Amino acid sequence: MVNTVEEMRKIVSHCKYPPEGTRSSGAFYAPYTYGFSNACANEYAAQANREILIIPQIESREAVDNVDDILSVPGIDAAFIGPYDLHLSLGLQPSGEGFEPEFIQALEKITQAARKSSVPLGIYCSSGEAARMRANQGFQMLVAVNDTMALLSASAEQLSKAKH
After folding, report:
1. Under 8 Å CB-to-CB from 121, ≥6 apart: which residues?
2. 3-class DSSP assignment, residue 124
3. pLDDT < 50 positions in the chain
4. CA–CA separation, 130 and 40 (whole Å)
5. What is the pTM of this model?
6. What confidence score (pLDDT) does residue 147 get?
């Protein structure tokens, strides 16, 4: 969850090893899977800097107000909208559909900022149908179902079949 450009800059810095950021190398375990030399540790850090994805969650009114600045920070790989928390932050009841005018305005502001900064955008969806709608709106990362809902749905279906 990111609310300000300052937070975003710190996050990027903490995710990247020097010289790109300030991430600690810790107890040396991960780098030494590449071998026991400084060159191997440097190779690990360079590869980690290339491969670690930085995906801030935009899920508050404050983040929406600052989204242009947040998404302009170099090093962001994508951004993700948390619609339920965003609803609450906007003073709305969370809904699976997201058709409230204030929520739609917030989504439009976020999508415009993402396009302007060339940042792929994702969102949590309440169903496969909602995911299809969001894909048609240009969202590129979609959560169409979570593990809990998938288990509940499949369990209910199988229990229903067992009753008949």
Report:
1. 78, 79, 80, 81, 110, 111, 114, 138, 139, 140, 141
2. strand
3. none
4. 46
5. 0.84
6. 85
